Fold this protein.
Amino acid sequence: MALSANMNVIMKAARKAGRALAKDFREVENLQVSRKGAGDFVSKADIQAEQIIKSELMNARPTYGWLAEEGGEEPGTDPTRRWIVDPLDGTTNFLHGLPHWAVSIALEHKGQIVSAAVYDPSKDELFFAEKGEGAWMNESRIRVSGRAALIESIFATGLPFGGRTDLPQTLQDLARLLPATAGVRRFGAASLDLAYVAAGRYDGFWERRLQRWDVAAGLLIAREAGALVEPMVEGQDILDTGGIICANEPIFGKFSKIIRNA
């Protein structure tokens, strides 16, 4: 497959940060961890991974803007392009020794995500996509599932943790969805949830109150794999509001109706 120069930069940065995180993951019990908020931790590994990614991306494209979970936002001299980065999506999994976390990198151009990668170092799976070029996992082209019946479909979401106020709404979602489906999974990394929809492992995904860096890469990968991706509230912008519904086309209408009615 022919990759753009920007895509090669993204993939190199994702793999380099992933290698550093994998090394720290093997010594997770020795990590120095500080409390960042209720149920939301930040580790030295997280910060170091962001520094690796920033160095790789900004050295290659010094005029682009920057937005990342730990480092915040920095405008670039090119106002039309910006990197959006989550150096460690699934921090809580990482700190508990659960091998389900990822590096997420997206390139935004004039408000649209045009290149993206989500890298899972634990499984050495690199999901990536460029706008109009399809979606891939390592060397293989990926597509959403073809399931058309909700009762045969598996969905993913995030569940509110300590300090969040949206638990009642999520419980309403589950009360409506669970009886109509083959199940719901909560693995704790939104970027991988979206990549798994793209690869046909899940049939759909929804969540509220996500951050821009949580979904920027994954939404492009899902769309390029054939998923329908919409904001939780019709007419809003996913990256601005953090509410997302994603599924293959045959089940999207039924699935989105259940979630939006909840």
Notes: The chain has two domains: 5-142, 150-261. The chain has a mean pLDDT of 93. The helical segments are 5-25, 44-60, 91-95, 167-177, 190-198, 212-224, 238-241, 249-261. The first helix runs from residue 5 to 25.
